[in-house]
Amino acid sequence: MTRRFVDQLRDGDQLDEIFLATDKQLRVNRKGAQYVQLMLRDRTGGISARLWNAGDHVFRSFDDGDFVLAEGKVQLFEGSLQVILTHVERAEAEKVELTDFMPHTEHDVGKLTERLRGYLLRLSNPHLRALAECFLMDDAFVRGFVACPAGVKLHHAYVGGLLEHTVTMMDIADRLLPFYPGTDRDLVLMGVFLHDAGKVRELTYRRSFGYSDEGQLVGHIAIGLEMLTEKAADVPDLTGEPVPRELLLRLKHMVLSHHGTLEHGSPRVPMTPEAMLLHAIDLMDTRMHMVLRDVKEDRNSQTAWTPYNPTLQRRFYKGGGNGDLYSPAMESYD
Amino acid sequence: MTRRFVDQLRDGDQLDEIFLATDKQLRVNRKGAQYVQLMLRDRTGGISARLWNAGDHVFRSFDDGDFVLAEGKVQLFEGSLQVILTHVERAEAEKVELTDFMPHTEHDVGKLTERLRGYLLRLSNPHLRALAECFLMDDAFVRGFVACPAGVKLHHAYVGGLLEHTVTMMDIADRLLPFYPGTDRDLVLMGVFLHDAGKVRELTYRRSFGYSDEGQLVGHIAIGLEMLTEKAADVPDLTGEPVPRELLLRLKHMVLSHHGTLEHGSPRVPMTPEAMLLHAIDLMDTRMHMVLRDVKEDRNSQTAWTPYNPTLQRRFYKGGGNGDLYSPAMESYD
Amino acid sequence: MTRRFVDQLRDGDQLDEIFLATDKQLRVNRKGAQYVQLMLRDRTGGISARLWNAGDHVFRSFDDGDFVLAEGKVQLFEGSLQVILTHVERAEAEKVELTDFMPHTEHDVGKLTERLRGYLLRLSNPHLRALAECFLMDDAFVRGFVACPAGVKLHHAYVGGLLEHTVTMMDIADRLLPFYPGTDRDLVLMGVFLHDAGKVRELTYRRSFGYSDEGQLVGHIAIGLEMLTEKAADVPDLTGEPVPRELLLRLKHMVLSHHGTLEHGSPRVPMTPEAMLLHAIDLMDTRMHMVLRDVKEDRNSQTAWTPYNPTLQRRFYKGGGNGDLYSPAMESYD
Amino acid sequence: MTRRFVDQLRDGDQLDEIFLATDKQLRVNRKGAQYVQLMLRDRTGGISARLWNAGDHVFRSFDDGDFVLAEGKVQLFEGSLQVILTHVERAEAEKVELTDFMPHTEHDVGKLTERLRGYLLRLSNPHLRALAECFLMDDAFVRGFVACPAGVKLHHAYVGGLLEHTVTMMDIADRLLPFYPGTDRDLVLMGVFLHDAGKVRELTYRRSFGYSDEGQLVGHIAIGLEMLTEKAADVPDLTGEPVPRELLLRLKHMVLSHHGTLEHGSPRVPMTPEAMLLHAIDLMDTRMHMVLRDVKEDRNSQTAWTPYNPTLQRRFYKGGGNGDLYSPAMESYD
Amino acid sequence: MTRRFVDQLRDGDQLDEIFLATDKQLRVNRKGAQYVQLMLRDRTGGISARLWNAGDHVFRSFDDGDFVLAEGKVQLFEGSLQVILTHVERAEAEKVELTDFMPHTEHDVGKLTERLRGYLLRLSNPHLRALAECFLMDDAFVRGFVACPAGVKLHHAYVGGLLEHTVTMMDIADRLLPFYPGTDRDLVLMGVFLHDAGKVRELTYRRSFGYSDEGQLVGHIAIGLEMLTEKAADVPDLTGEPVPRELLLRLKHMVLSHHGTLEHGSPRVPMTPEAMLLHAIDLMDTRMHMVLRDVKEDRNSQTAWTPYNPTLQRRFYKGGGNGDLYSPAMESYD
Amino acid sequence: MTRRFVDQLRDGDQLDEIFLATDKQLRVNRKGAQYVQLMLRDRTGGISARLWNAGDHVFRSFDDGDFVLAEGKVQLFEGSLQVILTHVERAEAEKVELTDFMPHTEHDVGKLTERLRGYLLRLSNPHLRALAECFLMDDAFVRGFVACPAGVKLHHAYVGGLLEHTVTMMDIADRLLPFYPGTDRDLVLMGVFLHDAGKVRELTYRRSFGYSDEGQLVGHIAIGLEMLTEKAADVPDLTGEPVPRELLLRLKHMVLSHHGTLEHGSPRVPMTPEAMLLHAIDLMDTRMHMVLRDVKEDRNSQTAWTPYNPTLQRRFYKGGGNGDLYSPAMESYD
């Protein structure tokens, strides 16, 4: 049976569905009776729910962040929909389709993964190709890499976002490299692959997106560097010789400097053509993703401008606006 | 009949007046009955109003930003005044006295306009005088210039504000020029006239103050430059010769650089005595306007300080405070 | 009888206690009856209180910031505790134990004062020792110095905080000086004593913490300098000769530059070894105080991180977190 | 006869060639005799020259910046080459091959121009295509556009540099647009064409590279905007209708915002997808040009690093360095 | 006999004049003979001088910074003038006309002083008028105030500069105050008088301009505050009552905040109308002084631009330039 | 035989000593004869030397950076000492006492090393103690750590500087920890040990101080992190269990954040008490080292101020100055 998502609920609907429970509270109404209030969430949004005459027993039967089976009825109250529950109980996470609860890339993860492998396994430089293989042979890493978002909120904030962002950047690098002879193709592609790889451990993304403690204390740049050092140590098993010192140095430098400036958290600024190009492509792709998403997702037709984007500190122009016509001078001036 | 303004309404008043409608909502009360809620506004403030048992038909009969004729009764509810409406309908904008709905300069716009013309028509430099005439002959421009505020919120944010700010700066320049020989009087006065002229198209000010799309995307500096180039092309019709190249360059430079620094949106910093003086007078007049307005308008006698001014990131001292007396050390220390 | 503090009140308690009254309002309920609402506060927190059927007479009988005797009963309402008052009247400040109403250093003020005097009266330099005596002989100053907090919110924001911060810094300086030969011990200790002494007049701390008008307009650095100049003029009465010009200059420089940079409000940067060391110790002690307080006071065991600290613009890691475990990659990756 | 360039001169060579004269001085030797000293320059460098026993007459016979016919002999003096002149006289600029005196793009200007025209004349949007035609029909503009450098020193600082930079960016945009659906291809290409077009008037590039007065006072962004407004006014002659208001606004916005931030001289930040992409491509191409040029042009094989680049405030890594080997720890550590 | 200044010396002149000696060196020529080399300076410039065959005895007979009587002959050497001395000896400072050695205001110091006294003695506020009198009665202060420059290099860097700058600002304030009702005239004038008064001790200006140790360590803002506090203590002797607390606080605040921002060395930003106006006038007058001086003093007619001004980080446009004509596009484009 | 250092050479001395050769040039004198010029350096300074009538053969017989045996005579020329060589030849580095050529800590390296080992081997935490042992057992690391400077120019720029800086910070931490309960002693000491350990590979210090390529491209923070990860992997060999995850995370965080802010190259800001304290002690010790060194090393008694320190952008006050006395106002004013 198809799931009914939060954004499909209507006044009067009967409800019997699994949700992510958050903001659980035990409250007392005006008559002194206890009740439990919580939010029921899935990837489309959240709805408030109440179970009347429920006390400590129910309150302790599940935790914030658990999945719960919720039964009850949807009704309109003071202009908003809410759920009056008849029953709520903890559901096993195993029975849950996680993708119902977290936003997901619109692209096919399998195909993206194939393109990633294609780029990496066709690298000319045998050391870099072997290094890539060491990463691809690590199942846990790959599992994380294809699931991880590229960010918690800023851009590509959905399951598969890191993979999508990485493969798009590889495609772009592939097309731009002919313009910049003197820039090493293999290094650029490998740098693109690894630049955000540390996010696999920086972020948490099992039920919701957040930062791990390691992510906060160490950050994806240093984590990525550590992963690179670790895998580079495995390369001689494949090639019989260590990754050449200068090659490895150049690759580390790319991971370290890809944010472009110290203020943005890179302890080194780009000092090679490859590091420069990696930073430029990364900046372009994250910014283009933000502006196009803001314009596309804004459904408010009353204004020609998107809501304020706090990261970029601006609104974007959607167009079609008649804002100018408000000016009396304008009316006769044009 | 004199209008009763929002800030004159009292508990029990019968109401039959035109207001600007905003924040329109269709809501449902606890018994499930629909009602319409909206804000009624004029230039003195706003009051919440409800029309009970009114549904979609009424809700759709007017838009946010429309003028409405509102009939009903004022009453006190939970410590605040509100209006219980008996009738609400869209009013024709033509019948409305716009100045009732927007704040207005306290000065006489006619006299301010005369002083502006006086300065401009007495310029010694025939090219600049002719250029000024080209602007003054453009009725649409003049209509906008005398109505436009100088800002949406920051300073001179009222109808006629641009005119008042401009003429005050001309008066100031007139008095300061003798101190700075080597500074061209005609250029300074013309630069003052044009520095914010682009606001005529940057801002919207028919019913409320805001930014036009052109204002957001291009900004008053570039708009002003465009207006200047356009009018300069008309000068030969009056004088028989083009505006001398260097003179025009110096004037453009003044408009471009009047914000003083790149970070404040001027793509060039002042590099002539005239541009330097224009920037200094503009900065002084806008800041003095802000501090004097904040001190004057603050009616809170409980504190010696005005509310926080987010533009200047500070509070101002109104004085008469006894704040010091709170300190025990102080009591015996002085 | 021991005082029952706000954080000890329980549903059903009878109340007969003195509180600091704030947020006083005269309101009207749905039936049109007036009532008085206010907050009752002490150093442990605040609780909302209502006196039903009380009008203008009660409302005017005390002011915000007064101490009041409150009688009534504590009850739970919509999940929160509130007080239904039966009687409220202004209480004399003289009868009030001020320390019940303001947070206080955990150290013994008497002992801290003795350590301060010990350091100062054992200074080798006779001019500086005499200068210190001039401060210590000023009873009003000393009364303020031992009561004043070191800040309103940032750090050591409690009665005695300035004293505690100062003595701790002296202890630290005492231990560090052997590492930096060429740094004058007496100057460092005297500079530590005086660096924040101006806070005695900058802050208000009789009933709550705030800034005096002088504090806002002049600031503790300039106030401290003024106090230093004034006391230095008294030194010849003790020693028979003026404080040597260079010595006084070096001390003034330390007070002036102790914030380290112009952006932080010091009009001079440290340019002597003693000023440099003073700034370094001050920075260390204020920051260590903040991080240790945030970690210690945070009772939220659900997260490994403290709430956001706006001054330092970061959260602190409390540890013991399992945040990392949320990541699916992590589970198998480690 | 082929020109012998400055970097081809050898000790003992007879000289009879045209050079650009700079740094002209009239000096007196130890014996009191006057002589004329000057620098002889072409696009490969400069060499010092002296004409003994030459006085005021010769000194005044040409100006700095003139072309001169120089006859004499090259000789080694204190380790450097210099020219001892027998004759020097002013040469007519008409006889001079300007490209001998200024660096030149390595690409074929004719082919670049064809590619530029190809992109522009194949635009789908009839208004933008007509606008492009208005520019291309302006012979003086085109003559400037194909000759102008893209910068005085920073990047593409050679004759044809603006054209090369523009066409490269169009090629790049052409390849990147498929990645960013929702971004208008015609607007992006037209924005790329116009973003630096104002440099045609901002820079001077007849005999050496510099800034015109208009360039200093107004800058290429405002000049470009003026050129755009002027040409847009001609469009109706071709299409019978004005350029749509919003389309023109979006294009102006792109020119205005292409530096990305206010601090870099753009009075507006990019607020449309097209403006965002234009800025990203411009930043990438200018930076890649700089790093690749610095690496390629550095002939110093003693160090693995290029000279300090003051614009980007860093050195670049050329590689092949053994710098690490200097560390004693390193020797045994690896 | 009229002094011959450095800028009046010609080849062949006999010299017998007093100069300020600087850059003294004892050197050895190629034949091993010792000689003394030094610079002879007055307010118009400096000239190099040598005394052949002079050893340690002469070298030690005067110090850098002394006045010396120099006898010898001016001659041209390698294109520059120098002096071959026959005799040099230390001269008594008492015999020296100091104004020959330091630049001086072009205004009449007596008249400026009278205007200053006029403003101050006509203040309406009796407290401020008495405070002004306390300053004016202090002869040492007045002697310093009329001699002191307003800066070492930036602006008004000549004897009498502080007085000239102060009186000009008073004149300007006098004319601007009518535009800003709500701004206290007496406070503004008194604030202008005192804002830079601390420079009397911050700077040294007996033989050349520099900073005193107190100036470096404490700075003119804190010195000025100290002077204000000291004089305010004398007011009761004149008026029988102390300067009202709030009035004095407002005046201190003006001195403290007149640089406008913390980064510029003011530990407080302007928070009263009077402090705001003082800062604005100060900024305007110092900047206008700089731009007009740079334009006026630049004698280089080869360029339309002044030399780079490092304080304001820009060149100024003198005009009359033909810079644009260098552009080939331009030639046909206009 | 004791070495005669550069700063001990006198006019007329015969020379037969080993120096570091730099700035080698092959030049031609006025008569056309070739000669070799070079600088001879040791840790006390450098002296210019010439070998007349020496051509390409000698020039190529050694490289810049080689040690050379130099024979010749010291003589005074134009006021400076120089060496006229009779013979120069490459010397074997093995025969050279390296400490003659590089500045060295004044402390006993053996004792410093013992103190370092003492702190580390007495750590209570068995995991951290074992980790420390892993570093101490690595002979190559220890050899680098005791030789490495703490910086190239800024502070502790001498052989043994890193060790001295580290041990001093441990001593300081030891004394400060009692003031900050809640701060883990073992973590702080271990963090101090490792914070700059990456400099062992970042810097080069065999013959002169500089940066390795790895140092430039990766930097000591990331290098240190890599060393920490590597050694942590060896800990289980000693303890039988891995370093606890959170403990290692906290230690990595300390290394990463010890510069305090992103702008200073730390990709993370301090977020634990231990990281905060490490940063504060590091900042204090480096700054105190700079100011005390500048004051101590400045031998210029003509001024009360040290030369400009470009890192800290200020001069330091040495004291004893009479600078104030230059002011005429001052003379009578005090």
Strand order of the largest sheet of chain A: 1-2-3-5-4
* Strand/helix succession of chain A: EEEHEEHHHHHHEEHHHHHH
Give the mean pLDDT of chain A: 89
Oligomer: homohexamer
Percent of sequence in beta strands of chain A: 15-25%
Instruction: List the chains of the largest interface with their residue counts.
Output: B-E, 42 and 41 residues
Total number of beta strands of chain A: 7
Short description:
The structure is a homohexamer of 334-residue chains. With 334 residues, chain A is an alpha+beta fold.
Topology:
Six copies of one chain form a homohexamer.
Chain A lengths: L13 E15 L5 E9 L2 E8 L3 H4 L7 E11 L2 E11 L18 H13 L4 H11 L2 H9 L13 H16 L8 H11 L3 H4 E2 L5 E2 L1 H5 L1 H14 L2 H5 L5 H13 L15 H25 L30 H6 L1
Parallel strand pairs in A: 3-5
Antiparallel strand pairs in A: 1-2, 1-4, 2-3, 4-5, 6-7
Helix pairs in contact in A: 2-5, 5-6, 5-12, 6-11, 6-12, 9-11, 11-12
Description:
With 334 residues, chain A is an alpha+beta fold. Helices cover 41% and strands 17% of the residues of chain A. The first copy, chain A, contains 13 helices and 7 strands. In chain A, the strands form 2 sheets. Chain A has a 5-stranded mixed barrel with strand order 1-2-3-5-4. Chain A has a two-stranded antiparallel sheet with strand order 6-7. In chain A, a hairpin with a 2-residue loop joins strand 2 (34-42) and strand 3 (45-52). In chain A, helix 9 runs antiparallel to helix 11 (245-257). The longest helix of chain A has 25 residues, at 273-297. Chain A is elongated and about 75 Å long. Residues 322-334 of chain A have low confidence and may be disordered. Chains B and E meet through helix 5, helix 11 and helix 12 of B and helix 5, helix 11 and helix 12 of E.
